[in-house]
Amino acid sequence: MIAMIVLSVIVTLFSFWVLGVHKRLLNARKRIKTAYTQIDAQFKRRYVLIPNLVEIAQSYIKQEREALEAVIAALNEAVEANALTASHPLAGIAILHLSAAEDRLTVAMGRMFAIAESCAELQSSPAMLRLTEELNDAENKIAHARQAYNDCAVQYNQDMESFPGPAIANMFGFQAAELMQAAAPVL
Question: What family is it from (predicted)?
Answer without folding.
Answer: Belongs to the LemA family.
